[in-house]
Amino acid sequence: MNFCSDNATGVSPEIMAAIAAANCGAVMSYGDDEYTQRLQVKFSDLFETSVTVFPVATGSAANALALAVMTPPYGAVYCHAQSHINLDECGAPEFFTGGAKLVTVTGNDAKINAENLGEIVDRAGAGVVHHVQPAAVSITQATEAGTVYNPAEIAEISEVVRRHNLHLHMDGARFANAVASLGCAPADITWRAGVDILSFGATKNGAMAAEAVVFFNQELAKTFPFYRKRSGHLFSKMRFLSAQLEAYITNDLWLTNAAHANNMAAKLAEGLAGVEKVKFCHPVEANEIFVQIPESLIAAALNQGFQFYRWDKSTVRLVTAFNTKEADIDAFVDFCKSELSHNI
Question: What's the whole-model pTM score?
Answer without folding.
Answer: 0.96
